[in-house]
């Protein structure tokens, strides 16, 4: 008898391979994830997201009615739930393209189902830590103000020059980490382990593309330097716009 408690998180899996859907669902059921919805088309996925809230979306790149990247763009208009891409495309350009348009992570087919489980658990573990932090910290600690940049983690909103900027969950997490640690240098490896919460899996290029996206969103043309600076061969440093 399995005494483990059922995990409450809701997961949406979008893939047109019936065998893969079955395999992933059975694997997750064994890990006590039972709130799982499986669909085989992008159209079905959008309908599900319109009518339900999900804690995680696993998305195939090649669907019969949508390119997964195009679908991700549509999904991002409705939810900031983490998205893990499943892709048979192994090129760096394809992988980074998925991250650039709103994906949080990717796994290349064929893949080890336990690797997928490990990444899912890392995402949920991170979400739980954030919820705990929200419950134990005052609002003032959850709002970071640096010149023209304001990060409000109580509402999940990044404001640049008084304008709300659309961000994915991982972009917000990265920005929060930098706001908590101004003027400190962190390696790409450290950032991946901290934000994605999983050592030994994934690709550190994930960090690079997310930072590239953040840089564009917090850019101030009046500043002679980048707010998030890349120290070649060392790592990244957040330099607050107000010079603090």
What can you see in these coordinates?
There is one protein chain. This protein is an alpha/beta fold and about 240 residues long. The protein has helices at about 20-30, 40-50, 70-75, 90-100, 115-135, 140, 170-180, 190-195, 205-215, and strands at about 5-15, 35-40, 55-60, 85, 105-110, 145, 150, 155-160, 165, 185, 230, 235-240. Helix 8 (about 190-195) packs across helix 9.
List keywords for this structure.
Arc Repressor Mutant, subunit A; globular; single chain; 244 residues; alpha/beta; 2 domains; Rossmann fold
Number of helices: 9
- Could you describe the largest sheet, including whether it forms a barrel? 5 strands, parallel
CATH C-level of the largest domain: Alpha Beta
The secondary structure category is: alpha/beta
Strand content: 15-25%
Secondary-structure element pattern, one letter each = EHEHEHEHEHHEEEEHEHHEE
> What's the number of extended β-strand segments?
12
Determine the CATH topology of the largest domain: Rossmann fold
What is the element layout, followed by pairings?
Layout: E1 7-14, H1 18-30, E2 33-39, H2 42-51, E3 56-60, H3 68-76, E4 83-87, H4 92-100, E5 105-108, H5 113-136, H6 139-142, E6 143-146, E7 149-152, E8 157-160, E9 163-165, H7 169-180, E10 185-186, H8 188-195, H9 205-217, E11 228-231, E12 235-238
Parallel strand pairs: 1-2, 1-3, 3-4, 4-5
Antiparallel strand pairs: 6-7, 7-8, 8-9, 10-12, 11-12
Helix pairs in contact: 7-9, 8-9
């Amino acid at each position: 008898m399995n005494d483990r408690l059922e995990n409450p998180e809701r997961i949406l899996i979008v893939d047109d391979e019936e065998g893969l859907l079955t395999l992933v669902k059975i694997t997750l059921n064994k890990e006590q994830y039972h709130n799982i919805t499986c669909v085989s088309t992008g159209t079905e996925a959008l309908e599900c997201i319109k009518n339900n809230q999900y804690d995680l979306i696993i998305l195939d790149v090649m669907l019969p009615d949508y390119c997964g990247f195009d679908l991700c763009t549509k999904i991002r208009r409705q939810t900031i739930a983490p998205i893990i891409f499943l892709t048979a495309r192994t090129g760096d350009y394809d992988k980074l393209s998925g991250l650039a348009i709103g994906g949080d992570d990717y796994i290349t087919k064929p893949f080890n189902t336990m690797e997928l489980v490990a990444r899912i658990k890392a995402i949920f573990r991170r979400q739980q830590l954030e919820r705990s932090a929200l419950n134990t910290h005052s609002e003032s600690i959850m709002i970071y103000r640096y010149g023209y940049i304001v990060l409000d983690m109580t509402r999940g909103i990044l404001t640049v020059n008084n304008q709300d900027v659309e961000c994915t969950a991982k972009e917000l997490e990265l920005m929060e980490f930098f706001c908590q640690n101004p003027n400190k240098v962190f390696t790409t490896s450290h950032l991946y382990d901290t934000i994605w919460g999983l050592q030994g899996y994934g690709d550190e290029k994930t960090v690079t593309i997310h930072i590239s996206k953040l840089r564009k969103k917090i850019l101030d043309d009046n500043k002679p330097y980048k707010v998030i600076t890349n120290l070649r061969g060392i790592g990244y440093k957040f330099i607050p716009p107000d010079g603090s």
